[in-house]
Amino acid sequence: MLFKKNFTQESVNGVRMGNGSISFQGIKLNVHSFYLDGVLIDSGGRSLAKQFMPFFKELEIEQIVISHYHEDHTGCAALLQREQNVPIWMNDRMIDYCKKKPDYPMYRQLYWGRRPPFQAEPIGDSFTSANALWKVIKTPGHSQDHLAFLNSETGQLFTGDLYCQEKTKVVLREESIPDIIESLQTVLTYDFTDAFCSHAGYLHEGRMALKRKLEYLLDLQGKIIELYHEGKTPKQINETLFPKKYPIIRFSSGEWNSLHIVHSVLKEYQEVSL
Ligand SMILES: [Zn+2]
Q: What's the 71 CA to ligand 1 centre distance in angstroms?
């Protein structure tokens, strides 16, 4: 099959960034790994191991931290563990899941390959590297185990998949918009300057970018609830707010869909108003 793979690397304000991408049938996906002060944040997708591994070999990795269990963030963890024998830290919620062979849908296996099992250790509320204390910030919403990492020395925040893009139009079935809103509010209580997103990369004026996303989601949430009060069904609300049908919806057989945005907002709203 015709997959086009690409890899670029750069340094921004002392952070080494590796960015791997893969495109197939007009859909292009990418993911970053970041390195700073002996810490590798996320390990790329297994399908891009040939691209990511030479980049990892140039770094002096002392420990690996994982933002969340998804296969584009954990794909080379087993390889790294075998070759470099370094500890891997992640939210304990998904450690057992990552010990097993993956069970995600075929289209994800096509893009990112099959993530080999690996053994991670539970991360605490903070950890240290040679020159810094890092805060581990629980930021569920994209996934239940999602974490952001703040280097308190440099004020650089690594947001995993909390941001991705400002104007979210489609999300995974497992995502919760109300939880993402809360997580954005949580990270904004911390002192940081730069932000690094696993997909968008370096976010220029990161704090502002995260604030804009928060505003967008709050506005969207308000609109969904308003339409619900007008008596519209989730499907009608979806068609009103997201008229465009994105290729990923069909390609993923609906695992990605804008309808999940509507459902997650209404689910929380109904629970709160009961
Ligand atoms: Zn993810």
A: 8
- Under a CB-based contact definition with an 8 Å cutoff, are residues 244 and 167 in contact? no
Does residue 234 have a pLDDT over 70? yes
Checking DSSP bridges between strand 126-129 and strand 194-197, what pairing results, if any? unpaired
Q: What is the pTM of this model?
A: 0.96
- CB neighbours (10 Å) of residue 79? 18
Paired residues of 41 in beta bridges:
34, 65
Q: pLDDT category, 273, cuts 50, 70, 90? A: confident
Q: Is 191 exposed, middle or buried (0-12, 13-18, 19+ CB in 10 A)?
A: exposed
143 CA to centre of ligand 1 in angstroms: 7
Burial of residue 38, with CB atoms counted within 10 A of its CB: 0-12 exposed, 13-18 middle, 19 or more buried:
middle
Q: What is the mean pLDDT of residues 67-96?
A: 97
Using CA atoms, how far residue 117 sits from 38, 56, 69, in Å, is 23, 19, 11
Render pLDDT for 69-79 as a digit per residue (tens, 0 to 9): 999 999 999 99
Q: What is the 3-state secondary structure (H, E, C) of 62-129?
A: CEEECCCCCHHHHCCHHHHHHHHCCCEEECHHHHHHHHCCCCCCHHHHHHHCCCCCCCCEECCCEEEE
Spatial neighbors of 96 by CB under 8 A, at least 6 apart, are none
Identify residues whose C-beta is under 5 A from ligand 1, the ion.
70, 161
- SS3 state of residue 189: coil
Ligand 1 centroid from CA 44, angstroms: 11
Closest C-alpha to 11, from 3, 19, 2, 20:
19
Dig out the tokens for 49 from the structure: 């191991």
Could you tell me how far CA 109 lies from the centroid of its own chain?
Answer: 17
Cα(first)–Cα(last) distance of the chain, in Å? Answer: 50
Q: Three-state DSSP class for 6? A: strand
